[in-house]
Amino acid sequence: MSTQFVSNVENTINSRMRSARAYTVRRFAFHMFDILTGGDDQYQMDDHDEPGPIDTSVLTEQPRHRSTLIREERYSPVQFTEHGRKLNRWQCEHPAVLELLRRAGFYYVSRLRRLQLDQSLLGALVERWPRETQSFHLRHEEMSITLMDVAVITGLPVDGRAVTGGGSYQWAELCGLLLGVVSQDIKGGEIKIDWLYQQFHDIPLDAPPAIVRATARAYILFQIGCSLFRNSSGNRVHLKWLPHLEDFDLCGGLAWGAAALAHLYHALENACLRGKVEYCCFGTLVQIWALDHLHIGRPEVVGPQPTLVDMPLGCR
What's the pLDDT tens digit per position in 81-124? Predict the structure, then answer.
C-alpha cells in the first residue's frame, strides 16, 4: 500500500469528520434558534400570557401564590416584623449569665445586632419563594438558606438532638420552677415578652446562682419570642420552650439552628401566599443572607475587624 494512498485516505476521513462536526454544530445551532424563536411551544416565553411556570407539574400552588396579584394589579406588599429594637435594648453583659449562654448554645446569637429590616428586599425575595421547592427562584438560578448559612451567620448549633415540643405542663408551676417568678398574665401557655425584660434585664453582678440561672433562661426565652421562633401574637412567647432550658448543657446539645431554619421555612411558606399582609419571622437572618449572597443594594462593606474574627458573620 503506497504512502500516497494512505495519505489520501487520512485526508478524506479527516475532511468528513470535520464536515460531520460542522454539521452537528450547525444542526444544534438551528435547533436552538427554532426553540428560541417559536419552534417549540414549551419555550415560547413571550407568547405565554399567564405569569408563573408553564409546566405546573412541580409548582402546583401557583394560583395561591402572592406573585399572581401583580398580574391582577391587586398587589400589596407583605410587612415583615421582628422585635429588633427590643433585642438591641437588652444586650446581656452579666459575666455569669454569658457563661450559661455559652453552655446553652445561645452566646453568639446574643451578640447578633438586629438590623432595620429592608421591607423591599424581603418582599422581593418572598415573591420568589414557592412553597413546593423551599427556595428562591431567581432569574438564572435557585438559591436557598441552608444549615451552613444559619451556622455561619448566627452561630447557633445546627447538629445535635432535635428540638421537639409537646408535653403537658402546668404553665404557672413551670414558670415558677424555672424562672423563679410567675407571670400573672399567662394565656394559653404564653407570657408577654416585655414581662421578661422588666423582670430580668437588670440583675446585680453579685446575684445568687438561682437568679443567674433564671435570668439566662429568661434571656433565651426573650430571644426565642422576639426573633428565632416568633409567633403570630407578636408580643408573646410560649412557655413550651422552657423545659429545654432547664439543663444548660443538655440545651447546648440541641440543634437550635436547624429548628430556627425549619421555623423560617414555615414562615416563608405562609408569607408567600395571597392575602398575607404581615408576617413574623427571623428577618435578620434572611436579610444578612441576601446581602452576603446577592450583593444587590448591599451597603458598603466595612473592612475586617480583628476583634470580631472569631464571631459569626452576623456579628461583624
Answer: 887 788 888 989 999 999 999 999 999 999 887 788 888 889 88
The answer to whether the beta carbons of residues 178 and 170 sit under 8 Å apart is no
> At 5, phi and psi to the nearest 5?
-65, -45
**Are 285 and 174 a contacting pair, CB within 8 Å?**
no
* Three-state secondary structure readout of 272-285: CECCCCEEECCHHH
Rg (CA), the chain: 28
Amino acid present at 198: Q
Nearest CA to 203 out of 189, 192, 188, 213 is that of 213
The 10s digit of each residue's pLDDT in 242-298 is 999 999 999 999 999 999 999 999 989 888 887 777 777 888 999 999 988 887 777
How many angstroms separate the Cα of 275 from the Cα of each of 13, 50, 59, 257, 286?
67, 20, 19, 29, 21
